[in-house]
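Re: the request from the purification team.
They wanted to know what the chain is likely to look like in 3D before they choose a buffer screen. I agreed to run a prediction and write the result into the notebook, where they can find it.
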Amino acid sequence: MKRARSIVLGSSHWHVPLYADRIARLHDVVGVSDPDPSRVEHLARLWNAPLHSSWQDVLAAHGDAELAYVFVPHNEMRKVCLALIRQRIPLVVEKPDARPTCPPSRLRRNRQRQRLPRARHRADLRR
């Protein structure tokens, strides 16, 4: 099975340990970011991936990533998601649009403009 070249942004989020082993098995992590790299050194080692202190550095170094996991703070979510969409990198977002800084419709319009597919929730598939 081909492993997706993935980046993980905001890796010190408390949900990341829930996914860490599975990400290691299923992805080729090519970049990891966190504002405090010392908090996620163990994840960078687990994933055998370079560690950066900013998501911008990861994106600059790995703009050809095939998938991004986004765990950045809510106040950065909009900027990060829009940057990934502009680079046509599919993304998995922790609590998308949890704060009203970027309405879901705006992200949807940008995703559609870039012709990125939308992941379907199981409930959507039953309709």
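For the purification team: Confidence is low (pLDDT under 50) at residues 121-127.
Please add any questions underneath this entry.
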